[in-house]
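Quick note —
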Amino acid sequence: MRAEPTSAPSPTPPTPPTPLSAGTGRTRRALPWAVIALWIVVLAVSGVFAGKLSGVKHDDAVDYLPASAQSTQVARIQQAMPGGGSTDLVLVYRRAGGLTAADRAAVQQQTDALRAAFPVVGAAPHTVTAADGRTAMVPVAIAQNAGKPEDVVKKVRTQLADGRPDGLTVLVGGPGGAQADAREVFGSVDGPLLMATAGVVALLLILTYRSPFLWLVPLGVVGVAAGTSMAVAYGLVEGFGLTVSSMSSSVMTVLIFGAGTDYALLLISRYRDELRHTADPYQAMATALRRVGPAVLTSAATVVAGLLCLLAADLNSSSGLGPAGAVGIVCALAAMTTLLPAVLVLLGRRVFWPLIPAYGAEPRTGRGLYRRIGELVTRRPVVVLVASMAAVGALALGIGNLPGSLRQDDTFTSTPDSVAAGRILQNAFPDHSTQAVTVVVPTAKAAAAETAVRGTAGVASTAPGRTGGGWSEISVYPAAAPDSPAEHDTIRRLRAATAPEHGLVGGTSAQRLDTATTSSRDRNLVVPLVIGAVFLLLAALLRSLIAPLLLTAATVAVWGAALGIGGLLFGPVLGLKGMDPGLPLLTFVFLVALGVDYGIFLMHRMREETVRGAEPRKAIVTSLDATGGVIASAGIVLAATFSVLTSMPLVMMVEMGSVIALGVLLDTFVVRTFLVPGAAALLGRRVWWAPWKAGRRGVDGSAPAVEVEPVRVGSR
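Predicted structure written out below.
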């Protein structure tokens, strides 16, 4: 793993040191200090607000959904009813040998004590015993004014733990229990995630630079960018009502560390190279920034554009992730192009110790790994291209093995009380749902609506609920298991049956159904937007239509292959029982936006070599040799940072981290190394074709050729 190019086509003579005027010298010494002072002010201000982000996160399913979703409307109506919203619990009692008389007495005693301790809304709690006599459940709806769901559940669990007969299992499940467990998990991931991500990045930087000091600089700057982005995200939440979930915050942190470190690798690699040709570190950094700036800026712009396309999503969790991630990228870019250069210039060459780049020394030359790969690709482009396409295509076939939708009980990689309770109930009541679906109807039409509900296929039982604000509740228990396709069909039939009475169907299962429906709609809308935005930015940078088309198609192929690997990994290897409906869209946005980065670094250098007059295949070899090590290091860092998500106790995080990490590695070591160079070798100069340049001159006198216009990036 290398963090710098190892060869150059024609070494540039070292720039002799030139005397600087006193004024220029003072400016050069003062500017880095001024930049650092500015960032100290930014960090001081952002530190006041960064910690407040955790207090404004939204992790409830109803917060993710658009206002137009029926389940969202039901939740809003319930807020206006007596007692407001509710924390819906299911108390589960089980004894393997069968419930005893003492057990049943304890159930009744605890239920009465619960009603005395908490305000209960809706129907009075009643005990339902399973046919086998080993399990009993008590649905309880506690009014919202009793406190936060997580606090209520904690108190209920503490109260139920006292006074139960020996050998009787007592668990608190239901939507409220699951919500409390989820918030506890979300609240515990931020610190470990940040530490794990920083640790992974630190280790990789130490291995890359082999310096006891250098790794501290980019890592510290990335930390500054992360703190700043949290403060800005908090401002967006307060100022514009942005929905930021714990998942959004976690992904933003990983994205900043991954992308920010990538930018640092590219800049430091070029800076180290320029130090060999320039005596003055200030001038070497200015040249390095000028030469890598366009590629890094376009790279960041593609990620920001792709993320901002998520604003078109109806799902609030997705549309909120877009700006949050974009803020992270902008902060990372700003820190890596201002603060990092300032610190490196002030530290001078000694920061690279023990591998200090000496002025006038030439970089290592020879037939490095990526030069040999480039020679192989240009010598046998058809074989390389077909083999790499076949590999990517074969992996994509695994998409057919992806698991179905993720059920609520399968959300965690661990087994909290709510999940254990849900599994017990599913086994004890196989023909009856233990999770109510809530129907709200105008009070004047409640009788007709209840008749329609009872006559709906798939409904096992109903119970009247609260009335208030002109609306009445009906609790409906489907015959099918919660979150099953059969239950979702029952919810659709309920919506059709109550529509004439202006009824609305909500509840936890309805929320998950609405989430899946909205995710599908968002995917169909956002995916084309991301492809279009990325393609246009690439066309603007590369001034071509073929090269952007090649890179965009390659990144889409990587996404398909990465999902295919997920299909082979999730169920058979990891034992995951479902897939979050938002996973395809989010992984697409990240893999396409981030994957294009490496294509930009490669193709930008290839175009640079072509402008200098290199023959197309020679340009490919030189570009692979010059950028291969940097891209490999950047890809490993980015994949490693996203793989940290797989250590989180949430299935969605594990799946997202796995798909993105594997996709980045596939993109780095197969697509950017073999597939794209192989296609470019076959296309030759035609890879730079654009209609506005066609016909200017001929290729071998037989057809219009492509004139590659110079890119003004300060190339030698």
